[in-house]
Design a protein that fits this description.
The complex is a heterotrimer of chains A (262), B (399) and C (391). Chain A is α/β, with parallel strands linked by helices and 262 residues long. Chain A contains six helices and 15 strands. In chain A, the strands form three sheets. Chain A has a nine-stranded mixed sheet with strand order 11-10-9-12-8-1-6-7-13, with helices on both faces. In chain A, α2 packs antiparallel against α5 and α3 crosses α4. The radius of gyration of chain A is 21 Å and the shape is globular. Chain B is built from eleven helices and 22 strands. A seven-stranded parallel sheet of chain B has the order 11-15-10-5-8-9-16, sandwiched between helices. A five-stranded parallel sheet of chain B has the order 19-18-20-21-22. In chain C, 53% of the residues lie in helices and 15% in strands. Chain C has ten helices and ten strands. In chain C, α6 packs antiparallel against α7. Chain C is globular. The chains are: A alpha/beta (262), B alpha/beta (399), C alpha+beta (391). Chains A and B meet through α3, α4, β9, β10 and β11 of A and α5, α6, β11, β13 and β14 of B. β11 of chain A pairs antiparallel with β17 of chain B.
């Protein structure tokens, strides 16, 4: 069946490049590039593969500042058909509640059968926006999807990667899944994809387009508040074992076991 | 919570706020600072400004009414196959402190089937005031949608002030649904919880790959909800029960219907783990002496069920692919256990792993800087120590 | 920053696509293929999927060559070669095998063969060299005898890049031995044609990820319709091809040199001796500065030559020879110096740098040794001096 797939993505700083200035206690942003959240790139790849296999469309959507346009174009270059930038000053300061509300409204407007998100974003690491969207749109969800086994007319069968194993779930459509990196290996942009991305005219949605009450958007619509941000406390050195390797290993294993590490 | 304002008369356009901002949310436009769309109103810039040009703007939103009706600390009693999970005990320990600080009861919410015995045991052994137990065959196995609905119903009925769940696959999957359904805030993957002088829950969590910590409040919505990183809080000692009560709650049958259907579960331990997500990482460095000795690191990682990392020196040496590199030019990791084997601990490596919960260093050189950040260390020859350690870990797991 | 060579937006995209592919798909496996001496099918599939295979093929046959096919080819070859010159050869040698069809094929031949090459579905190869015909192409011993509307090929080609992995071969054979160089003709031979088999697989010093084999023709019947151009035009077709393909070899050499330089600089900045990075020693710094200058000069000459070839005015033989010769000498020298920068580590197979030195060597040898290139340049200089005008 032809699926209308919507993939939610986020532009994030490459946190593997982010460092803390130990003296000033601030983030060093210099040289840190913005990328498509890596987990979202698996979501995009899965959306494109499903579309290629079953027909339909793969649309990417992001809520963010105007600069997030580049992230959307990157998705076009790897095969997404359409891209929506949901951007408005009114969205500033959104926490996961307000973000999921806003994205849900945008997705409702775009139209969908299946929503795919990355399992979490590497800057916030919350994993909350996907399930939040599902509730706003009253959808079933399958988080941590590592494989889409079957796609039927009215449902799909999904393998979910959990802490202790793999759960197989049948989820009706429309529905929402969040994916883990095991699900695929994202393709690199092709030349034709890059050319299309360059020329592609992005679709834009603002707060006014989404018919949302102002009080539910951005900071005003966000239940949580960031109170303070600080550098993680530096660590102090601990216990060092010296002498016979066998005894050292015994002591280490004992102390690790005692603290529940192993 | 307040928004921020820039007083243009005072702003010198020095850009210190820009350097300080973790969200890239402020810029210098002309000679004045200006908030960008990406601003999160976190206030870091306010503290950084040498001219006191950034001030708090009055919060016009009135404090929400009826918050006082919410009382007590709840812990989600995550279970698998009818067994209460370890993370629940960790949360009971932490929840007890919060409940005491608020002078409110600590309750555990258990959703399951045929678990009355387990609930009673929990009450007998641990300092829980009350267990709400919702029993139904449909709740035997976790399913996010159903669990979310039942939990939301109970929250609306019983009005807890604080709700905690483990930041596990289950906890994260369903509590984000609950938060939206009952319209409250949820802070993910917390590593620190405390009550502030106003009685609010201060939820502290790492962000940006563990490079910064953020403390988050939920001032005007209830309950205040957090998922908490497993293995961070300490479980209380057993035998600390205080004679709490068990309240069985009958679920609304209509709310037990799930649209999804769980077909199968297959236990499986992943062998190859991405180091950025791994809970346990064993890394090797130049001290291994050669690529052939990386086998020793891999064996230990396998024994621990962890991933293999590498220092830059070992990657540059071609002993390991770049994808395994930890550090400034590699990946930033914060596993529960990081074992550094033959890694001297250059600062470039340390920035990539020092937020790990427990760091073990094994090195021949007792003066290696890695020992300064290590929780535990062994001074010795890797070729001797690693095989012994691997064997002992396996022996222990065999028990 | 990088020097502005006035690349078009499309060429910058080609460069970026090739660069990302080289970093993510080639660099991680380069050592493995080098060690195993096997053809990188998985990587070639990635190159095909990236739409890069058609960058030098005319648009009307499924490519994206536009007006700058050779420049496009150089950009891609350079980027791929930075990560592995052996793997990049799967792409570059296909170019060498395809250029004769682009330059001298009929519309039917182009329609039949170019689209599959442009899409990366098929690999091509160029077969002129024989045991006794290396630099002297007129000494070819493979013969093609007319028989009805076919030619019967007999003979053995040696050291053919992409041998066996290619589907489409441009093969040079004598149709009239009495005429020497003017008796050679070029044929398109498809893999699987009866009488066409593969001989020895070579075990090479470098570019080990490329497949180098003998092609054996035993009464191999090829349709006369597969002849490129007219009988006896083979040598001219080969020379035209080299004029267009040598900038590609130059680009490969530039890539090797640039890749080696990059590694050497990084190493020199991290390797500490006497309490400071070795880069802080002027002796080493100057060495790296010289390497960097040579690489940039080679790149500039290569790009200018590629552009001149693309312009299609006159015969660019002299400049193609210059670019190939200068860039490959640069690659050899820079790669050797890069090993020197690494010191003892550089000599070890564990480190990636010695491979660049082994790979660089072939660029001084194939598609005409650098002695032949200098000979071409000298001949052109003499001709210009005598005639008083450009060739």
């Amino acid at each position: 069946m032809a699926l209308r797939i919507v993939v939610c993505i986020k532009q994030v700083p490459d946190t593997t490049e982010v460092r803390m200035d130990p003296v000033k206690g601030t983030l060093i942003r210099e040289g840190v590039v913005s990328i498509v959240n890596p987990f979202d790139s698996y979501a995009v790849e899965e959306g494109v593969r499903l579309k290629e296999k079953h027909g339909g469309t793969c649309t990417v959507v992001t809520m963010g500042p105007p600069q997030a346009e580049q992230a959307l174009r990157d998705c076009i270059s790897v095969g997404a058909d359409e891209a929506y930038l949901v951007s408005d000053r009114a969205f500033a300061g959104s926490d996961t509640w307000a973000t999921s509300l806003t994205l849900a409204a945008a997705i409702r407007k775009i139209g969908f059968d299946l929503i795919i998100c990355g399992k979490q974003a590497i800057d916030g690491d919350t994993a909350q926006v996907g399930p939040g969207i599902a509730v706003h749109l009253d959808l079933p969800q399958a988080t941590y999807a590592r494989k889409i086994r079957e796609v039927g007319e009215k449902s799909m069968i999904i393998e979910r990667l959990l802490e202790e194993g793999v759960e197989t779930m049948e989820m009706p459509l429309p529905g929402l899944i969040t994916v883990v990196k095991e699900i695929n290996e994202p393709r690199l942009p092709s030349l034709k994809g890059k050319m299309r991305a360059k020329k592609y005219e992005l679709k834009k949605l603002t707060a006014a387009d989404l018919d949302l009450q102002p009080g539910k958007l951005g900071l005003d619509g966000s239940p949580t508040r960031v109170m303070k941000i600080f550098a993680p406390p530096p660590r102090a050195g601990g216990e060092v074992f010296k002498g016979e390797a066998d005894q050292c290993a015994d002591k280490l294993v004992a102390v690790l076991a005692k603290n529940g590490v192993v | 919570m307040p928004k921020l304002k820039i007083i243009s008369d005072k702003c010198g356009g020095c850009g210190q706020c820009v350097d300080a901002c973790p969200y890239d949310g402020i810029e210098i436009a002309g000679t004045l600072a200006k908030f960008k769309d990406s601003c999160n109103w976190c206030g870091t810039c306010k503290d950084a400004c040498p001219f006191e040009a950034i001030v708090v703007e009055e919060d016009k939103a009135p404090a929400a009414a009826g918050l006082d009706a919410y009382k007590g600390v709840w812990v989600f009693g995550e279970q698998r196959d009818g067994h209460i999970q370890r993370v629940v005990l960790e949360l009971v320990g932490e929840g007890r402190k919060l409940a005491d600080a608020r002078k409110e009861p600590l309750c555990v919410l258990v959703l399951g089937d045929k678990m009355e015995g387990a609930c009673k045991k929990l009450l007998a052994d641990y300092p829980v005031d009350k267990v709400y137990y919702v029993e139904a065959p449909e709740l035997a196995v976790f399913e996010a949608e159903v669990y979310g609905k039942i939990c939301a119903d109970l929250i609306r009925a019983k009005k807890p002030e604080i709700m905690l769940a483990g930041a596990t696959c289950a906890g994260r999957s369903f509590l984000s649904r609950v938060a939206v359904e009952v319209h409250t805030g949820l802070t993910a993957d917390c590593t620190g919880l405390a009550i502030n002088p106003e009685g609010l829950l201060m939820q502290t969590r790492p962000a940006f790959g563990g490079n910064i910590m953020a403390t988050i409040l939920c001032p005007n919505h209830r309950p205040q909800m957090s998922t908490v990183r497993p293995r961070v809080m300490k479980p209380p000692a057993a035998g600390t029960g205080r004679g709490g009560t068990l309240e069985k709650v009958a679920p609304d049958k209509a709310r037990l219907l799930s649209r999804s259907k769980i077909l199968d579960f297959a236990a499986e331990i992943e062998e190859t783990v991405n180091i950025a997500e791994a809970d346990i990482i064993v890394s090797g460095g130049r001290g291994l002496g050669g690529p052939e000795n990386f086998k020793l690191v891999e064996d230990l990682a396998k024994a621990l069920g962890g991933a293999v990392g590498s220092s830059r020196a070992a990657v540059d040496a071609g002993w390991k692919p770049y994808s395994h590199q930890v550090g400034q030019t590699g990946k930033t990791v914060c596993p529960k256990l990081y074992v550094a084997c033959g890694i001297s601990g250059a600062v470039q490596h340390l920035v990539g792993m020092q937020s790990s919960d427990t760091i073990v260093a094994i090195n021949r050189d007792p003066d290696a800087p890695i020992f300064k950040v290590a929780t535990y260390g062994i001074v010795g020859d890797l070729k001797e120590v690693l095989p012994i350690l691997t064997r002992k870990i396996l022996e222990r797991k065999g028990k | 920053m990088e020097l502005d060579y006035g690349l078009t937006e499309e060429q910058l995209m080609m460069r970026d696509v090739a660069r990302e592919l080289a970093d993510k798909k080639i660099r991680p496996v380069a050592a493995e293929y080098d060690e195993k001496n096997t053809f990188p099918w998985e990587v070639f599939k990635e190159i095909a999927a990236s739409d890069l295979c058609g960058v030098y093929i005319p648009d009307e046959y499924g490519g994206a060559g536009g007006k700058t096919p050779i420049m496009n080819m150089c950009i891609v070859v350079e980027e791929l070669s930075k990560a592995c010159a052996g793997i990049s050869l799967s792409f570059a040698a296909t170019g060498l095998g395809t250029i004769p069809i682009i330059l001298h094929g009929s519309d039917e031949q182009k329609k039949k063969y170019l689209p599959d090459i442009a899409s990366g579905k098929k690999i091509a190869a160029f077969a002129i060299t024989e045991a006794n015909a290396g630099s002297d192409a007129s000494a070819i011993e493979t013969v093609a005898k007319k028989d009805g509307d076919s030619y019967i090929l007999n003979g053995t080609k040696q050291w053919i890049s992409n041998g066996e992995v290619a589907e489409t071969y441009t093969v040079f054979a004598m149709t009239d031995k009495t005429k020497g160089a003017r008796g050679a003709s070029a044929f398109i031979v498809e893999k699987g044609t009866p009488g066409f088999t593969f001989g020895k697989k070579e075990d090479k010093m470098g570019i080990r990820a490329s497949s180098t084999r003998e092609l054996v023709f035993q009464d191999c019947r090829v349709p006369a319709a597969n002849m490129l151009g007219k009988p006896g035009r083979g040598f001219m077709i080969a020379m035209d091809t080299f004029n267009a393909s040598r900038p590609g070899v130059a680009a490969q050499a530039v890539g090797i040199a640039a890749g080696a330089l990059d590694l050497a600089v990084k190493y020199a900045c991290t390797r500490k001796q006497f309490g400071k990075p070795v880069m802080a020693n002027q002796g080493l710094g100057f060495l790296l500065a010289d390497m960097a200058m040579k690489v940039e000069a080679a790149r500039a000459l290569t790009y200018a030559t590629a552009r001149t070839v693309d312009k299609g005015e006159g015969r660019p033989t002299k400049y193609s020879a210059m670019a190939k010769c200068f860039a490959s000498d640069t690659a050899m020298q820079v790669a050797t110096d890069a090993v020197q920068v690494y010191g003892g580590y550089g000599y070890m197979r564990e480190y990636p740098i010695e491979k660049y030195m082994r790979d660089a060597k072939i660029t001084q040898i194939y598609e005409g040794t650098n002695q032949i290139q200098r000979d071409e340049i000298a001949k052109a200089l003499m001709k210009e001096a005598v005639s008083g005008k450009d060739d």
